[in-house]
Amino acid sequence: MASLTLRAAALAAIALVRVGVRATTIELPPCLDPFQPFIYSGCYADTGNPHALSLRSQLDQQDMTIEKCVSVCKGNGFRYAGLEYYGVCYCGNTVNGQQIDEEQCNYPCTGNSSQVCGGTDIISVYQDPTFLPVDEVTVADYDHLGCWTDDSEYGRALAYPQDQLDGSTLTTEKCLQACRDGGYPFAGTEFGGK
Ligand SMILES: *[C@@H]1O[C@H](CO)[C@@H](O)[C@H](O)[C@H]1NC(C)=O
């Protein structure tokens, strides 16, 4: 995940100076439709390498609430939403960190001081209850959804390349297994071996 985050950051930096270069991951808007509320999952350490949750949202951290962070993670199809350091919002499909004592999550949120937004290198994590628990998901649970275009002005159809897989021996099953292990609800193959 660290290398993916770095790659996304590098691509974003290039995009600033070279017009026309596309970033792989484009943050979609928050979900505006009503949806089943996320459930609090616990207080976790975030060592930052890799981050506990993979996507750092570009939402304004000076005016953050649990509702805002959860909505952007829902809008981007993530399993988890997390709030850290008064109002930095993260989204992810796995939590890469140790659960720690509840009292260590004690910073008020910038947009609603009655809510808790983690701590320093500590993140308050919420979970979308509409996802099956990761342990119960198998490759057989993925349905074929058809053939889609990729890499438009809206970014990649699926944002996280699984570059740890060897393209020359790729199979559908290997792709599904990697995406299942990463907690991703969608998987896709293209270009003969990506
Ligand atoms: C602030 O958060 C508390 C606790 O979640 C909630 O009850 C309250 O409605 C929120 N206030 C606003 C203005 O949204």
Automatic annotation (TrEMBL):
Residues 37-129 form the WSC domain. SMART domains: WSC (SM00321). Keywords: Repeat, Signal. It holds the Pfam family WSC. InterPro entries: Sialate-O-sulfotransferase, WSC_carb-bd. Residues 1-23 form the signal peptide. This is WSC domain-containing protein. It comes from Neurospora intermedia.
